[in-house]
Amino acid sequence: MADSKLPQTDVNEILWRARKRLTFFGLPWTFTVYRLTKDRLLIKTGFFTTKEDEVRLYRILDISLRRTLIQKMFGLGTIQCHSSDKTMGHFDIVNVKHSYDVKNLLSDLIEKERMEIRVSIREFISDPDCDFDDEVDN
């Protein structure tokens, strides 16, 4: 029987991978793994039962970085994402190292993906579930 494993392509190349860390001591003792490719963000959670969520980068409307005093002490941060994705909606990338650099990487990839597939923020304005209300460029 032939090997059923699918070949890895450049599209699925992982550009960033991290594990959610504990707030205290910044140790990666959790069962949440974040992966970022050129066009999607994947969040895998769980130990006995695992769940993997995926959001296409062009669907992320806004990102921000939040760092509490304790997170700063341990070199961590939380990236808050607001998306138009039906299943993910608003979500956080919690307690990751180098959070400022990750936020910038994510922001750059979002813009590249929107330019590549020619999606503008206007496409989300007509979505009744989307509460993104920033002014749109003409």
Characterise the protein shown here.
20% of the residues lie in helices and 32% in strands. It has 138 residues and is α+β, with helices and mostly antiparallel strands. Strands 1-2-3-4 form a four-stranded antiparallel beta sheet, with no helix packed on it. The protein has a three-stranded antiparallel beta sheet with strand order 5-6-7. It is globular. The relative contact order is 0.16. Residues 132-138 have low confidence and may be disordered.
Short description:
This protein is of the alpha+beta class and 138 residues long. Helix content is 20%, strand content 32%.
Shape: globular
Roughly what percent helix?
10-25%
SSE succession: EEEEEHEEHH
Low-confidence stretches: 132-138
Using DSSP, what is the number of strands?
Answer: 7
